[in-house]
Amino acid sequence: MKKQSKRWTAAEAGKVLDRTDRAKSDNSYAESQGINGQRLSWWRKRLGRPRRAGVKRAKGAARKFVEVRAKPAALTITLEVLLANGRQVRVSDQVDPEVLSRIADALEKQC
Predict the structure, then answer these.
(1) Terminus of the chain with fewer CB atoms < 10 Å: N or C?
(2) How many CB atoms lie within 10 A of CB 40?
(3) Ramachandran assignment for 6, one of left (phi > 0), alpha (psi -120 to 50 degrees), beta (any other)
(4) Helix (H, G, I), strand (E, B), or coil: what is residue 59?
(5) Which of 49, 43, 47 is nearest to 8 (CA)?
(6) Is the pTM of this model over 0.85?
(7) What is the residue-level pLDDT of the chain in tens, covering all 111 positions?
(8) How does 8-34 read in b/e, with b if 16+ C-beta sit within 10 Å?
(9) Segments of 1-111 assigned E as strands
(10) Structural domain spans, the chain
């Protein structure tokens, strides 16, 4: 563990807090940097810096969970149609058969 440095100024503490890894706890980050975790917590409180950027909750406020339902992914199949003249047409299975028939007829009539 690194030796504790001199006292921090508010500006120095702010720079350290800016660099903290948001995915780690203050204690985990402090340990990786050789800093006392309580030091980070003390400065975070003193400077009024929330633990996570953009997250501000009133003291004692409960977390709210919201149900999220995802739509199942639409499965589409690609069909390959081989025409009499040797041409291939690739279409989605969502294509209207009437439209596909007209496209196939038009392609068959071309040279």
Answers:
(1) C
(2) 21
(3) beta
(4) coil
(5) 43
(6) no
(7) 455 568 888 888 888 888 886 667 788 888 888 888 888 888 888 888 877 654 555 566 667 778 888 877 777 888 888 888 888 888 888 888 898 888 888 888 865
(8) eeeeebeebbeebeeeeebeebbeeee
(9) 78-82, 88-92
(10) 10-47, 78-109
